[in-house]
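Following the same procedure, the fold was encoded as tokens, giving this record:
***
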Amino acid sequence: MNEKDKISSTNKIIVELLAKHQWIHNFQVTKFFIEKPWNHIPEEWKNVLTRLTTEELNSLPFGYSKEDWPESLKKFITTASEMALPRKISEENKSCCLDPQIKRGMNPKKQHEVSHMSALINDISVRTGCDVVIDVGSGLGYLGHVLTSVYGLKVIGLESKQSHTTGADKRLFSDTDDKIINVTFEMEDTPENRLEFKSLMKSCFQKFRKSECGKDMDCDGPKVSLSDSNLINHSATNILTQQKNTESEQCDACLAESNQTPIQTDSDRKNDEQGDGPNTTLTGNDVTKSDVYRCLLIGLHCCGDLTPAMLKVYSEADFVRGLCCVSCCYHRMVSQEGTYPHFPMSKELDTVMSKNHLTPSAPFLRLGAQETRARWKTKSEESHQSHVKAVAYRSLLELYAHQENVEFRKDSMRTKLKALYAEYHVYFQYVEVITVSIIHKILIMLYIP
């Protein structure tokens, strides 16, 4: 069996497992007491699961079972554990040490992410021969700042919020400001967006070239501000149409490279034929070696539809030689008429899911962002109880809202103290205080005494 057949076989087994046991995952956890998923648990399973010790419970995801357990339960545990992707912490890449000045503004979690991610990105850049990193969703530029300051990489930061782009620019040091370009741009999976991305990258490459020339002259055109509002208004292509390309204005280094042949297609991963519609493939005669660098496309916390959009760019852009992204929040993908255009991206997998009547839903997509079983294995009795109470209390509140025909809307994430889940009355006292506070604010806004 070749590698493709192995993947197809594995996908089929996983889909069949998920389809058969949809009652386990296809419901909103906060509606536990409304949807009553426990009614679907086989009685023979209940007799076993309710008697497990903490140690046995923690071992279930790793294939633990006993001979006298029901065959259906043992088969479920065995199949689920065997289909789990191998997760082994790499010892090859060590996290980088962050200078106190670089750590400015980062909380401990962000420092952990940036120090490890930057080391990995540098390693991939070396292996793929990339000299420019395109950071999608760059935020305040923490990661790009480290990649430039520690590893000397050029970075193009793409961020959808202008305020974050401005904040990222303020973090720049004088010795790195010529290696980082922060741009307000939102990557989307549309032909028009990819054309704008292409134009934007060409402008950024030219700015890097001018910096390398060490001269004030315009090597490929007039100086432009890549954080100007015209880029936000989807007018990046206007910059290109205004550029001057006369040889008299170019430096010798740029002239030498501009006469070389266009960059060729990377045939080992660009062999898929494009369908009907605009040709947005970033290859061919319009991108030459004088314009382009070898780029690594990266993203830390690529939420929802951002990962599929990045994958599409990676598959089409010849100058993008590598991809490194940490995806999250799959349930935030945009749905259209009950379906998710970006899941699954594989036509073969879509066919298998349809045959097994497995339809993607928000709870289903959340499975991809769950903690690993390694985290589960270390849970104590106390942490299990805390989690049970957190879900139960929140679900009781949802049940009350459902009975009273009240809708809850979560405006932001809140970090709850463990003490709130010690007893149910403590939790509901907290909820009552928050509710009264919100009502008070509304009355103030409405000028009601």
User: Anything to note?
Assistant: The two ends are 75 Å apart (CA to CA).
